[in-house]
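User: What would this chain look like folded?
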Amino acid sequence: MTIYLLPADNARKPGDLNDPSQAGDEVAERDLNPPCVLVFNASDPSGAGGLGADALAMASVGAHVLPVVTGAYARDTAEIFDHFAFDEEAIAEQARSILEDVEVQLIKVGFVGTPDALSTIAETAADYPEVPVVAYMPNLSWWDENLIEPYLDAFRELVLPQTTVLVGNHSTLWRWLLPDWNGERPPTARDIAKAPASSACPTRW
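Assistant: Here's the prediction, encoded as C-alpha cells.
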C-alpha cells in the first residue's frame, strides 16, 4: 500500500515562508505562537507510534510538541519486542524543566511503562488543573501479563479521573473498562464509552 501525504488546503506555498509580507496577521501570529502540547510517551524507533508519531500528528494541525521521554521501545515495523521504562524522577525533571519555561495548552499521556511513572504524571497534571488531558491506551497484548493489570489499575486510579478525552485500542479498553462483560457480542464503542460515566468519571470519548 502506498500512502501519499498531501498538503492541507490552507497550507501556504513554499515561497510564503521566505516572504512574510504574504502572510496575514492571523497566520503570522499562529506561526509564531503555536499551541504547545506536553506529551508523555516512549521513543519508538520504527516511527509507527510513540513520540515520533505524536510529533508528526500534532505538527500536521499546527501544534508544537514538548516531548517528555518516558522510555523506549525495542521493536521493528511489525512488532514490539520489549520496552525499557525511564525512572520516574527523570520523567518528572523533564516535565518540570519545560513547564517552568513554556505555557502548555494540552497534556497528552501515551504509554509510560510503569505505575510509578503514571503517578508522577498524575501529580504533574494536578498542578495544572486548567489544562485538558488527553489519555491514550494502546494495545498492550505484546506486554508481560503480570505488568498489564497493575498498569491499568494505576491508570484508572490516578490518570483517568483527570482525563478530559480518552482514546485507545478497542480490545484493551474492553478488557480494562468492561472486565465483566458477558454479552453475546463484543461491546461496541458506545458500550465502552459509557463505562467511565458509570464509574462517575467525567472523561469524554
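The longest strand covers residues 64-75. If you want, I can go into more detail on any region.
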